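#onboarding

Welcome to the new folks! Below is a worked example of what a typical request in this channel looks like: someone posts a single protein sequence, and someone else replies with the predicted structure as tokens. Don't worry about understanding the tokens yet, we'll cover that in week two.

Example request:
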Amino acid sequence: MPIVVFVLAAAVFAQGTSEFMVSGLLELIAADVGVSIGAAGLLTSLFAGGMVVGAPVMAMVTGRLSVRYSVTAFLGLFCLAHVVGAVTDEFAVLLVSRVVAAVANAGFLAVVLAALPGLVGSAMVGRATSVVVSGVTVACIAGVPAGALLGQVWGWRSAFWAVAILSAAALASVWMMFGHVVHHSDSPEQPIRREWLVLGQWPVLIPVVAGILVNAATFAGFTYLGTITNGIAGGDRWVPLVLALFGVGSFLGVMVTGRFGDGHQPRIIRTGTITLTGVWMLAAVLSHTLTGVSVMSIVLGAFAFGVGSALIATIVRTAAPVAPRIAGALATTALNIGAVLGPVAAGPLVDRTGYPTTALWCGAVFTAVAAGVALLGHQRRDSRPVERVRADRSI
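Example response:
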């Protein structure tokens, strides 16, 4: 595995830390800039929205740039956004900096994922994807708690400075390692907008839809995991541990999938989505005890992120030969649509029932539908393969 893949994972670690650490800093930020907790919550929702919009837009904007220039530009913009966020006293400026950071984050992931087949070869895309995605899981385990600790000791701005420093270090390393110009495509004459027509082909559409549903389940359940734990334990002292256990499970799931996924991705996706449906249901049943929640947090993290990373690799591997400049954007956009959809769907159900465990049942429903989509894709496995999009025909 090229060392640059691990450097890219370190950059993703900084970005993942930034995405999730704000939830632990909301009270500090709100008190410092003089807004309500609810208003401060816009810092997380706008970041998610920026990720959804940023991936496809940035993939199109940088479609003809080299990977070296694209990833360093996005990392530089991400770093600058955190410097601005760390020094500003205006909440509006802080909000804008979070949107800019999200767009840069999404663009970075889109370019990196699309570049993996060229960096490691098609046969190792699954393993390389798992290494890159592991940056997010490690952020959940170590980065987010560290950000919260920095905020408590030196103020929330110190957490933003830490992310900026990590991003700058990764930027310098990436620039040096991408010593030659790597292009997204060998067919620059094809308009990039036509690459989006690949979504009309079943081999690409199936994993994209399944990725949206699996990640919707993940974020529907994860959003209320702390609330569930708090209700059981009668306080929040066990919440960090349970969330960390989810992160540990996520890391293990990504690593196992990366080790075996390249040769067995279709099987992992089919059996994984079916099994994950049962795991969500079992978690809902066992969520009345702290032991049950703790154990199932590890299992949920492992299966959710294991299946999710397999879907990312499948999207990239399937789309890259015919839509090289937007293959990473497809994967990134699918996952972030799911990240928005899950909490939006689970929230009203939790409010109506009054039980946060409803979010776990919601996760089961999402993954059950994803399993059906994956089985549909398996039944169509003999259909014609993905074809290169031409200017003189539609799909």
